[in-house]
């Protein structure tokens, strides 16, 4: 027999959760409406996510407000900072503005 346990792991080591990528499930369905709106948008747009970015942002904001994920600046999650109103290029490009700016510099 091995001293590491039935599946070969070290029994004394404690698991360490990842910093990002895993967050609590929405057991109380607090953000279901935002999630359903986003999924409906994806289906109606042929799964072109850039057309549904505003709903994706709304869903992430809902999760942050209800402590279902760590609060984080949305610009770090791929959303441009609000500048009053979105430009037509920003609202239709789905975040490509940031990519072009970084390529040109």
TrEMBL record:
Pfam families: CHCH. PANTHER family: CYTOCHROME C OXIDASE 19-1. This is CHCH domain-containing protein. The keyword Disulfide bond applies. InterPro entries: CHCH (IPR010625), Cys_alpha_HP_mot_SF (IPR009069). Transmembrane segments: none annotated. Residues 31-65 form the CHCH domain. Keywords: Disulfide bond. The keyword Iron-sulfur does not apply. It comes from the Eukaryota.
